[in-house]
Amino acid sequence: MEATPSPAGPMVQGFTATGFRIDGMVYRAATLTVTSAAAWVPPPLGQLTVAALQALVDARPEFIVLGTGPRLVRPSATLTVALEGMNIGLEPMDSRAAARAWSVLRGEGRQIAAALYPLD
């Protein structure tokens, strides 16, 4: 039996008291593409726009996993419609679930992106 190799790119390894452990570094909030992880200072969720997610949009993912913080909060319909117009889906969930989903979906080799709001 052979182990399935992990896909290239950043992997969420867990949580700390202050955020997400990604490839050995801790981020309070982060954006992830299949090739990179970056610290992120997100706007209030109600003010989230395509422009705030531009680095993710530029990566042309199938969809963006949006971690909305300690609980699921729906983003604006305007954002969802704008992303759908670019053929990019938006999957909101609480940030812990989003971080776990990232790892599972990347393990499947899916071409996704993620934006993770702080856990507090």
Write up this protein:
It is a single chain. By secondary structure, the protein is an alpha/beta fold. The chain has helices at 54-58, 77-84, 95-107; strands spanning 12-16, 19-22, 25-27, 30-32, 37-39, 63-67, 89-93, 113-116. The strands form 2 sheets. A 5-stranded mixed beta sheet has the order 5-4-8-6-7, sandwiched between helices. The longest helix has 13 residues, at 95-107. The radius of gyration is 14 Å and the shape is globular. 30% of the residues are buried.
SSE pattern, N- to C-terminal: EEEEEHEHEHE
Mean pLDDT, rounded to whole units? 94
Measured between the Cα atoms of the first and last residue, the distance is: 41 Å
Please outline the major beta sheet: 5 strands, mixed
Shape: globular
Radius of gyration: 14 Å
Fraction of residues in H or I helices: 10-25%
The residue ranges in which pLDDT falls below 50 over 5 or more consecutive positions are: none
Q: How large is the count of helical segments?
A: 3
Helical/strand content category: alpha/beta
Biggest β-sheet: strands ordered side by side in the sheet = 5-4-8-6-7
Strand content: 25-35%
Number of strands: 8
List keywords for this structure.
alpha/beta; 8 strands; five-stranded mixed β-sheet; globular; three-stranded antiparallel β-sheet; 120 residues
Please provide a brief summary of the model.
The protein is built from 3 helices and 8 strands.
Task: Give the topology, please.
Elements: E1 12-16, E2 19-22, E3 25-27, E4 30-32, E5 37-39, H1 54-58, E6 63-67, H2 77-84, E7 89-93, H3 95-107, E8 113-116
Parallel strand pairs: 6-7, 6-8
Antiparallel strand pairs: 1-2, 2-3, 4-5, 4-8
